[in-house]
Amino acid sequence: MFSFVLTNNYQEMSRVAARFIVKQVLQEEKSVLGLPTGETPKGVYTALVRLCREGVVNFSKVTTFNLDEYLGIDPDHRSSFYSYMREHFWDHVNLKRDRIHIPSSLPKDEKVECTRYEQLISQEGGLDLIVIGVGINGHIGFNEPGTPWGTLTHVCQLSTETRKREGARFQENDRSPERAITMGIKTIMHARKVLLFASGREKADILSEALLNAPTPNIPASVLQLHPCLTVIADRAAAEKSVKKPALKSFHTQESIQEFELI
Ligand code: GLP
Q1: In degrees to the nearest 10, what's the CA dihedral of 91, 176, 137, 127?
Q2: Cα–Cα distance, 181 to 132 (Å, whole number)
Q3: What's the start-to-end Cα distance of the chain, in Å?
């Protein structure tokens, strides 16, 4: 069982997801958060930055771990997830630098880096909440189809499909990386709460496959069905194949979020 929150559009999805994250931090000021990158979270980060500036949320005691990072590019490369996070979130909120974590994109020893990252998450007491987007092929983090469910943080080979899509994040002269470090499926599933969000029609098929079909390693996101505390926030376009479409009331507060019947 999981909660499914249906929103009218991307902006509303972003605001509701941001409130969900803020609620976590208000409940536990020392929250440990797992954070994603990609197009989908940009609106969430914008909303979180605004809420932080307005004094609604204080990130000074929060610890964050990013889900993944490319391998083989400089952290300051314009397309690294490190740069993405600085641009969209880190540089605009009152997170403490020493509580921000992301896998190294140029580790001396890749295996050592994966173990270090996983151990750091454990030392912080594990993730209270992990926020996740979904790739078109169902990947979560960079756990591509077929990734075993027992995986911890590891080096992964990006699929041709993912590389093609990720290529859009890279400028013409930059070659998009072939490998990355990602939290594993087990790392993700160990988080106490999971928030999955999706927006747009291009995510409709994969979202319904991930949520409505039997969980399978071929659709990594489908494992999330087995998590005891999963919330899915999707806009109408992404949800069109997953939920019946009741007349939607627009809502303004976290409390008025409604749950919808799955198809
Ligand atoms: C990348 C990230 C994922 C993200 C996915 C979808 O591959 N590693 O964490 O969920 O992209 O991104 P988008 O939101 O751009 O569709």
Answers
A1: -30
A2: 16
A3: 14
Convert the pLDDT of each residue in 106-164 to its tens digit.
999 999 999 999 999 999 999 999 999 999 999 999 999 999 999 999 999 998 888 88
Burial per residue of 205-227, b for 16 or more beta-carbon CB atoms within 10 angstroms, e otherwise: ebbbbbbeeebebebbbbbbbeb
pTM of structure: 0.93
- Contact residues of ligand 1, CB 6 A cut-off: 36-40, 67-68, 133-135, 141-142, 162
Least confident of 36-50, 182-196, 248-262: 248-262
Q: Where are the domains of the chain?
A: 3-261
The rounded distance, in Å, linking the Cα atoms of 257 and 263 is: 19
Q: Which residues are catalytic?
A: 68, 137, 139, 144
Q: What CATH class has 3-261?
A: alpha beta
Q: Which residues, in sequence order, are CB contacts of 82 under 8 Å at separation 6+?
A: 69, 75, 76, 102, 105
Give the CA distances from residue 92 to residues 53, 97, 119, 250, in Å, rounded to whole numbers and listed in that order: 8, 12, 28, 29
Query: Separation of 162 CA from ligand 1 center, angstroms?
Result: 9
Instruction: Give pLDDT tens digits for 7-18.
Output: 999 999 999 999
Q: How far is the CA of 134 from the centre of ligand 1 (A)?
A: 6
